[in-house]
Amino acid sequence: MAPDGSQLAQLTSRGNIDTNPRWSPDRERIVFTRFMGPLAEGGTDFELFVINADGTGFTQLTSDNRRTSEADWFS
User: Fold this and answer.
1) pTM of the complete model
2) Which end of the chain is more exposed for a tag (fewer CB within 10 A), N or C?
């Protein structure tokens, strides 16, 4: 989205399954949490992903089958 609110662009297509987005300090990337589903032993699996602000470079950061629910950037 442009600073004036125009040029909206959807970066993911999983609706409310992708949550807690956080911009990187350089405003180039976004880290977010994705609900992956229920775990066999109970609970739910959330993993962290990152994507470039232009929608490229979609990368899964975690795959530990745990409740990883939120991330943030350090500068």
Assistant:
1) 0.78
2) C
Q: pLDDT means per 10 residues in the chain (75 residues)? A: 80 78 92 83 84 92 74 76
Amino acid at 17: I
* CA–CA gap between residue 43 and residue 23 (Å, rounded): 28
The answer to whether 61 and 48 are in contact (CB under 8 A) is: yes
Q: Tell me the three state secondary structure of residue 52.
A: strand
What is the SS3 assignment for 39?
coil
Amino acid identity at 13: S
Q: How far is CA 24 from CA 6, 7, 10, 36, in A?
A: 21, 20, 18, 23
